[in-house]
Amino acid sequence: MVKVGIVGGTGYTGVELLRLLANHPQARVDVITSRSEEGIQVADMFPNLRGHYDLAFTVPDVERLATCDVVFFATPHGVAMSMAPELVERGVRIIDLGADFRIKDIELWEKWYNLEHTCPDLVQKAVYGLPELNRDAIREGQLIGCAGCYPTAVQLGYQPLLANGLVDHRRLIADCKSGVTGAGRGANVGTLLAEASESIKAYGVPGHRHLPEIKQGLSGMAGRPVGLTFAPHLMPMIRGIHATLYSVLKDPVGPDLQTLFEEFYRDEPFVDVMPAGAHPETRSVKGSNMCRISVHQPQGEDTVVVLSAIDNLVKGASGQAVQVMNIMFDLPETTGLEQVALMP
Amino acid sequence: MVKVGIVGGTGYTGVELLRLLANHPQARVDVITSRSEEGIQVADMFPNLRGHYDLAFTVPDVERLATCDVVFFATPHGVAMSMAPELVERGVRIIDLGADFRIKDIELWEKWYNLEHTCPDLVQKAVYGLPELNRDAIREGQLIGCAGCYPTAVQLGYQPLLANGLVDHRRLIADCKSGVTGAGRGANVGTLLAEASESIKAYGVPGHRHLPEIKQGLSGMAGRPVGLTFAPHLMPMIRGIHATLYSVLKDPVGPDLQTLFEEFYRDEPFVDVMPAGAHPETRSVKGSNMCRISVHQPQGEDTVVVLSAIDNLVKGASGQAVQVMNIMFDLPETTGLEQVALMP
Amino acid sequence: MVKVGIVGGTGYTGVELLRLLANHPQARVDVITSRSEEGIQVADMFPNLRGHYDLAFTVPDVERLATCDVVFFATPHGVAMSMAPELVERGVRIIDLGADFRIKDIELWEKWYNLEHTCPDLVQKAVYGLPELNRDAIREGQLIGCAGCYPTAVQLGYQPLLANGLVDHRRLIADCKSGVTGAGRGANVGTLLAEASESIKAYGVPGHRHLPEIKQGLSGMAGRPVGLTFAPHLMPMIRGIHATLYSVLKDPVGPDLQTLFEEFYRDEPFVDVMPAGAHPETRSVKGSNMCRISVHQPQGEDTVVVLSAIDNLVKGASGQAVQVMNIMFDLPETTGLEQVALMP
Amino acid sequence: MVKVGIVGGTGYTGVELLRLLANHPQARVDVITSRSEEGIQVADMFPNLRGHYDLAFTVPDVERLATCDVVFFATPHGVAMSMAPELVERGVRIIDLGADFRIKDIELWEKWYNLEHTCPDLVQKAVYGLPELNRDAIREGQLIGCAGCYPTAVQLGYQPLLANGLVDHRRLIADCKSGVTGAGRGANVGTLLAEASESIKAYGVPGHRHLPEIKQGLSGMAGRPVGLTFAPHLMPMIRGIHATLYSVLKDPVGPDLQTLFEEFYRDEPFVDVMPAGAHPETRSVKGSNMCRISVHQPQGEDTVVVLSAIDNLVKGASGQAVQVMNIMFDLPETTGLEQVALMP
Fold first, then answer.
1. Which band of pLDDT confidence, cut at 50, 70 and 90, is reported for residue D84?
2. Looking at domain D150-312, what is its CATH homologous superfamily?
3. I want to staple C37 with a disulfide (CB 3.0 to 4.6 A). Which of A177, C57, C208, D292 is the partner?
């Protein structure tokens, strides 16, 4: 039984970890921290957990967290890096759902996150947490910087094309659409139902923090720096990310893309290449850890369009973190992650 | 392993049965029927099931269904009564999610459903499927007419008051709010997103088919015919029923209602009496089989207000049917029904 | 041309006043105040107003406001009472959309609003702003305390019954459903899209600030203190209130209620009694100043159910305020309020 | 006073025409047809129109329609072409909101619409109805084929770039998002609230009927055939289209795009170029005839991203049709179209 600690349990990725771990047969949440909610039962804050947990929030405390086998950070950037060095030293394994350990280029990180990084050495030792890209390194890793939500959807969609050198790596366009939970549980006028429902908008077109993370990942796949335009959009829904990924085929009559994608992901339990002609709906992954992908070559011309759908809170965050934990602790990778998406 | 057949698998209660049974450790769906979708894989119709089922729809066939231990009817009224007699004769157990076997007064049933009942004898032998009311009879039953969605929310809310004779049974008011899946998966202008979102309305105030079912149940609890006003409302959401139940206390300074409710439902795994002062949200039961209830006595006066929330497709339909199956087959009642509600 | 000032223009009732007054042929907004947004153009804050206004927020200033013919307070309770005395003294007419001048019983007001009232004398001179109840007094009034959103829907629904003495005034039940704009534009976790959509809940069942206002109004209609249970519910939609109003007929075979309602509201431009059997949808009044009502007597028994639908931001707030202004300034009552509801 | 006829008044563009024309001071709807709803009052079908119209649906009849000055076809493709020749002959002016007269290449039209065109001659005489592209021709036109919803958003966004020859015309990508009213008012499982809310998906990526129309328009602007990838997406909202338009600048340090766009649309009453850095929300045009546009050049690189937002039922259909009518009848172009968008 893996003893789990969670730092920052009051946000959406925190409660989603609790949901997923409630029925995980090989893991048990021992510690959950929140400075503001100290002493409150998790089930009093999140009534969906009533009957599933007898666990109260405690103030973050390294001593206490060090009794865990693994600590998840479900926190905004900047928190994990402040506690990670001490926990790593004590041999605790760390899975950061935030951004502190994703980007290898410290200067780039500091520019986009507007913060000085306090443990750049650890960044270099950290493993990027996207199992479909990096499974072996995750297995051995002590500190994992889990892939972000947009980066997961985009990288899984582009990987077969870039890894096979099929498209022009300089002209990638990722038009992404996300539900509002991507913005977190903070009180915010912009994500009030009265503001965000019955409307859509782009945001961060001039620049978004996930851009350098995605470029780092795609450049790794391509073996050289890619050119990427990334346009995120806010959707009037709770959960879900849909990435529409455009690229230009070097050879429009090259290998059959459907077959290529199917073979590329044949053994992946959480990537579902849909039949030719399909369009994945985000609801088909709602509450599940699946990424559903389809690939199109409209009118047989040289533009390829990949559609990639995930639940941003599951495969884009907490489910992926549990998948990473399963890998790290040599559990079957799908343990606790077999939920069927809630549809309708 | 319970061998399950499902008649009518293309509606919302059908796909929800498939979702719940996909991870049920003691049941396996062997047969699923649909005349219109014969030969189609269930996962091609409902992509959330991809990877969980290798099962195709077949034309309804009594021979084939008779090989099952239990057959669920996830069909509109009128279908179950046409096939039940033959299946009953062959010893198959039946769980009808529709309305054919709920109402004992055949004449009343025929008036509200505008149809002649073809097996009135079976109605008398059928057991009403609401475990919190009727658990022992269900255990022995061969044919169960599961409680409807509104009737479940209303009866669970009123039961402690009526069974204890605390309120005026002649003046019950059930103001109920339901998500659109209550109207089924049929193509219908009124439940298009463009018609039903960003709006609410009452419907069926002059009379709704669930009225006689609810009155039958409440009258049973009260030991005499109750007077009930039932006003259903359509809500701009997919899942969920919220019943707001008004009644008049015979004695405003009688027993403490909070304690009474907690004790009444102490041993029920799927009824959660919330703390005093709470207001259950439907999302706190989304995708789960729980009914959450709170009880209020505003300003200490003689009106009691009970709030009762369920997921109409789970505790109001398919989850309840699985709970009934567990009881019938001597499985632990919560088997396969431990999902945590999806929140947010 | 009526010169208009608006205090507190950054909330939802403020921007709705701006929307309605943009095309009002006899009124012009001269001053709009907001301490936090001083100097900002209203159209920069609310892009729907681009091209309609060249007007910036200014700090509230009595001198400046005193140049207006009428000042609207689109503010939380407590603000209007702090500025009203001085403006009244200078002869400015005031329309308060907040709660400061609605309740005549100062002690009661102070209890529910948990605040000392600073100008109780003015309260006694103030006129309650619900034209269908109080039109003549409004015409002569200098200071109007506009009816709240729930109170408008409830009072218009009950008025024909209570004014005619047809129902038991001791047993009124108002089950009300409101869109989230009723909670205002403040940053608030509870009304985030991720929290409030795909869910419904009751709130304030033990007691809500609109209860004393509604009781005061209904008691006036009935000529004696009424007994009222008021249960508000939060709906996953932006705009709209639907009140479902229950009462007990003294005589179940009394006057035809449909005819009675139609005649009662025959000359009202903003109350639409729908045909017998109808159920008003809130979307049928979205963006319009109309209140649509239907009346039902289910199964001919002694309970009457009135359904009343308004747009909480229009007839429940800013539209009503404009209607009140039209009356005060002897303009045709419908001036600037002829918008057709946006449907779908 | 322009006498108006509407063929096909029971769909969303029909009721939206009625909403807009209800307060149009220079036009009056004399005839509205619907075969299925003959004799029904429009206000009985669409309760938002109660009090605004005393008009019943009639069976389509050329004699009757010929008494009108202008006839709008708010019909699926195929209807207008069956009645247009006779009306044109009688001198009636026609505004077709459908697709029959938009595409000059008959063969192409027949391929995409899978129907033989019955009056190809009229197509050649027809004028394309997008005033910002084609105002003078519209003024003189007798038969107008109004621009479709996606085509309007896309063409208005690309026009300044293509007309000035600034971008590579071979690599245009239009990622478009539409509310469900774009799919019409037909009963359809796919646009049920239970299917389409809390989810997004692409559709028609292999090919969509608006593709040839958009390509025709963009090619006209560019002066040569363009290459376009068009990916429409279904959004969980009622109204609104957001087009995200990608193209490659020939010269990344060319003219300032913000200034270029502002000047290009300086005199257009219904195109609003937003300030630099802005992201238009579809709700900022909800119910209004405005198209709001912003232009971005992320990180100063060579990709330009134009964001274009309209209400698909107004500027994308019925509002545009009224704008066209105003032009044809020498009325001020904004007559009846000054509604402020409903926000929130």
1. very high
2. Dihydrodipicolinate Reductase; domain 2 (3.30.360.10)
3. C57
CATH class as words, domain B150-311: alpha beta
Angstrom distance (rounded) from CA C315 to CA C209? 19
Q: What is the mean pLDDT of residues B111-129?
A: 97
- For D152, counting Cβ atoms within 10 Å of its Cβ (0-12 exposed, 13-18 middle, 19+ buried), the class is buried
A250 pLDDT exceeds 90? yes
Looking at domain C2-125, which CATH architecture does it have?
Answer: 3-Layer(aba) Sandwich (3.40)
Owner of token pair 């055939």: D225
Q: Which residues of D touch B197 (CB under 8 A)?
A: 193, 197, 236-238
- Least Cα distance to D303 among D261, D253, D249, D251 occurs for D249
φ, ψ for residue D12 (rounded to 5)? -70, -35
For residue B248, give Cα distances in angstroms to C72, C173, C214: 42, 11, 21
Contact with chain B for residue A280, Cβ under 8 A: yes
**B336 phi, psi to nearest 5 deg:** 75, 5
D187 C-beta neighbours (distance < 10 Å), count: 14
Which residue of chain A has the CA closest to C185? A189
Confidence band of B193 (pLDDT split at 50, 70, 90): very high
CB contact under 8 A, B342 and A19: yes
What is this structure's pTM? 0.98
Q: Which two tokens stand for residue D315?
A: 């500027």
Q: For residue D308, give the 3-state DSSP assignment.
A: strand
Give tens-digit pLDDT for C116-126.
999 999 999 99
Q: Residue ranges of the domains in chain B?
A: 2-125, 150-311
**Of A48, A197, A344, Cβ closest to residue B340:** A48
Is D252's pLDDT higher than 90? no
Q: What is the rounded average pLDDT for all residues in chain B? A: 97
DSSP state of B224: S
What type of residue is C60? Answer: P
Check CB contact of B189 with chain D, cutoff 8 Å: yes
Nearest beta carbon to residue B192 from set D192, D236, D237: D192
D229–A246 CB contact, under 8 Å = yes
Residue B255: pLDDT band with limits 50, 70, 90: very high
DSSP reduced 3-state for C144? strand
- Does B334 reach chain A within 8 Å, measured CB to CB? no
Q: Please tell me if residue D341 touches chain C, with a CB cutoff of 8 Å.
A: yes
> Would the ipTM clear 0.85, i.e. be above it?
yes
Find chain C residues with C-beta within 8 A of B305's C-beta: 202, 205, 229, 231
Q: Which amino acid is at A323?
A: Q
The pLDDT score that the predictor gives to residue B252 is 87
Q: Identify the closest residue of chain C to D240 by CA–CA distance.
A: C344
> Whole-angstrom Cα distance, residue A85 to residue A99?
16
> Helices in chain B by DSSP H: which ranges?
12-22, 42-45, 62-65, 80-89, 106-113, 120-125, 131-140, 149-163, 193-196, 210-222, 257-264, 319-328
State percent of chain A over pLDDT 90. 99
The answer to whether the Cβ–Cβ distance between D15 and C341 falls below 8 Å is no
Our answer to whether residue B149 is catalytic in this structure is yes
What secondary structure does DSSP assign to D7-52, as a single string?
A: E-TTSHHHHHHHHHHHT-TTEEEEEEE-STTTT-BHHHH-GGGTTT
Residue A248's pLDDT band (boundaries 50, 70, 90)? very high
Check C181 against D50: CB less than 8 A apart: no
The owner of tokens 């077709």 is: D96
> Alpha-carbon distance C71 to C95, whole Å?
6
Cβ–Cβ gap B200/C344 under 8 Å: no
Q: What is the DSSP string of B144-161?
A: EEE--HHHHHHHHHHHHH
The 3-class secondary structure across C219-286, one letter per residue, is HHHHCCCCCEEEEEEECCCCCCEEEEEEEEECCCCCCCHHHHHHHHCCCCCCEEECCCCCCCCHHHHC
Note whether A197 contacts C: Cβ–Cβ < 8 A.
yes
